[in-house]
Design goal:
3-stranded antiparallel beta sheet, alpha+beta, 3 helices, 12 strands, 4-stranded mixed beta sheet, about 180 residues
Length: about 180
Amino acid sequence: MSEWTVHGSRTIYTSPWVEVDLVDVEPPGRERYEHHLIKWAPVASVVLLDDQARVLLMWRHRFATDTWNWEIPAGIVEDGESLTAAAAREVLEETGYKVAPDALEPLAYNQPVGGMSNAEHHVFLARDGVRVADPVDTHEADRIEWLPLSGVQGMIDRGEIVAGVAVTGLLQLLARR
């Protein structure tokens, strides 16, 4: 199969966090049409593992899906910020744990909605977390807990961990052990 031809695009909505475009595309052997494209800044996230084989997870509600689930710290990479600096910043803001950006190990990368978005999720592994403060982003989680890595597969199976970036990172860590 050949690449689709892009004839142009127009932005129909923009904000500091998201842009929605209508893109004039022509798939091979098909008629042209306008396809939605949602553009986001990259997301950086961290699976924080301690010396007791536990992961730091945040229990939170997502209004868009009306879902309660466990997640890993994650957030948008700001302009001019490196992926590792963003990942370390998100851990600190959301959990109060400090991790060294230069000690973060790449764990997973995915494009969660490749058919209609440019979204990129970068997941890092950290092992050096030190609690230094209360979370700044207090709206991010109801609870923050260290949970055994050995129970993560069951939590995913039961739908207790459903966020794509968390599932991707945690399954990748389990596969590497």
